[in-house]
Specification:
The complex is a heterodimer of chains A (285) and B (309). Chain A has helices at 3-40, 46-50, 63-94, 99-111, 116-130, 137-161, 165-173, 178-206, 210-215, 235-243, 248-282. The termini of chain A are far apart. Chain A has two domains: 1-40; 46-282, MetI-like fold. Chain A has eleven helices and no strands. With 309 residues, chain B is of the alpha/beta class. Chain B folds into two domains: 2-106 and 250-308, Periplasmic binding protein-like II (D-Maltodextrin-Binding Protein, domain 2, 3-Layer(aba) Sandwich), CATH 3.40.190.10; 107-246, D-Maltodextrin-Binding Protein, domain 2 (3-Layer(aba) Sandwich), CATH 3.40.190. Helix content of chain B is 43%, strand content 20%. Chain B has helices at 2-18, 37-50, 63-70, 86-94, 125-132, 163-173, 189-197, 208-213, 234-238, 255-258, 261-280, 288-308, and strands at residues 27-32, 55-58, 77-80, 99-113, 122-123, 154-158, 184-186, 202-207, 219-224, 229-230, 246-254. In chain B, strands 1, 2, 3, 4, 5, 6, 7, 8, 9, 10 and 11 form an eleven-stranded mixed beta sheet that branches. Chains A and B meet through α3 and α8 of A and α1, α2, β2 and α8 of B.
Chain lengths: 285, 309
Amino acid sequence: MNRAKINRLKDKAFKYFGIFASVIGIVILAIFIGFVIYMGIQRLSWDFMVELPSRFAENSGIYTAWMGTVWIMVFTTLISFPLGVGAGIYLEEYGKKNRWSSFLEINISNLASVPSIIYGLLGLGVFVRMMQMGNSILAGALTLSLLILPIIIVSTREAIKAVPSSIRDASNALGASKWQTIWHQVLPASFGGILTGVILALSRAIGETAPLIVVGALVYVPFAPQSPLDEFTVLPVQIYNWVSRPQEEFVINAAAAIIVLLGITFIMNGIAVYFRNKWQNKMQW
Amino acid sequence: MVKKIFALFLFSGVFLYSCGSGGSQNEIKIDGSGTVYPITEAVAEEFRKIEPNIRVSVGSSGSGAGFKKFVRGETDISNSSRKISEEEKALAEENGIEYQQFSIALDGISIVAHPDNDWVKTLTPEELNEIWKADSEVQQWSDIREGWPDEDIRLYGPNTAHGTYDFFTETINGESGASRTDYNAVADYNVAVQGISSDKYSLGYFGLAYYEENADQLKLIGIDTGEGVVEPSLETVKDGSYKPLSRSLYIYVTKKAAQRSAVQKFVEFYFDNAGELAKDVGYVPMPEEDYEEQKSAFHSFAFDTLEAN
């Protein structure tokens, strides 16, 4: 075997490894989704969506759980989006590159790897008890916002960094102020990327159980929330509770609830992809 | 477009923050034991049918976590699968929370092994203590009794968050929380069921309901107290012959909550129906007269309060 042959062999080997690496994620996801759908699809019905939890698995529903999830997600978005994007813009456009800013940067990255239950304990101490919010939707949403802020900040910065500096120079050269440049040029150009980051972060938040249990998400809540200060339950907490029941039928309920949770995540991602594409087609220099 | 979206986020945030709602007389907040949760959930479900305006919410954060909130006055009723501890009592006193304990159902803790395990029929409380005590030297089945296999024993049990763990360690090892730590400590009992049913040399303990739902995958082990061997079942737990691993399940009610008519209605409804509902979710009802007794105890607890005022 000569050298060229060996190199070609290496090339092939790497190619197959690459295929394997790309496919494995999809295969695992497919097995997981297939299994969950196989188990849970029988329980999915309109009644399941509009009923309350019950001691009889077949009468149980997830109405308050998915309503709680939607409320929590709306508030988490409202809180984390402006804060995260604001911080990202500041750090990238206004912040001077000095020791202070690199100190901030390291700490934001570190925050992204703090276990989520720690955020739950922080939320319990600060929002639930100190700020007297009780185990409310607002306290839960603030806690989840803290959890995903680092991800939003980092992805906002990456998206802004990707905007060519020639755009900024051109805008400045025409006499635009810094804010005008950011608002009319940088943000529109990077908005697709920012949105992707925000949605990825929210997709993480929607599946969180531990911090919400610590903050005080309940399991049996017989009413849909009417205000951000109401008590709540969310889908992952309901799923967790059902999975730990002794009766097999509750596990089937859990599978059906997982399908709904996956559905909500897919819809959210779909909206994001739609906005991003719309955005990217519009931006042309 | 971008402007609109940004503006929408900012405005709706400010708007939604400014609206809110206060607590109401018709809310009952319950949290605590995951073991008791299914019973309270069932009671709340039935109660809602006759009193749709009383909003009962139930959490399932564990006996200990439930008491943490209860002694701060954050909940009205706390579910528990064990009695309140001295530290928790002290905290309640510090915060001026008066309360009373009520029994609502019975539960047995089952000792289980793999169905192919043909050597264990019974265990004595002393042997259980040998196996589970803090400095246990039991590593193989043969360490428990002569003639049992020279195979490593693999142990399953609840983790420290469970009231079941507190009760078992107190009953078997003499001190709540005194246990060997090199066992598979599970948060979710179904994990223990799976582990034991797939490992011939395993042994574990958990609430009777989990055995009964998985009876075909597990082997129940009788307890030999020297006065005969008893296996846990609805009957042996109810008549008290399954010793020492039978226990009461409790709810704790604060005095402040007991003054409210919504809570009074709910708790009375609880005692009237807990027996039937406990059976539905896999627990053992107390004898009928015990429910009457608990009910009148609650009456005097609530009534005293009114008189004192």
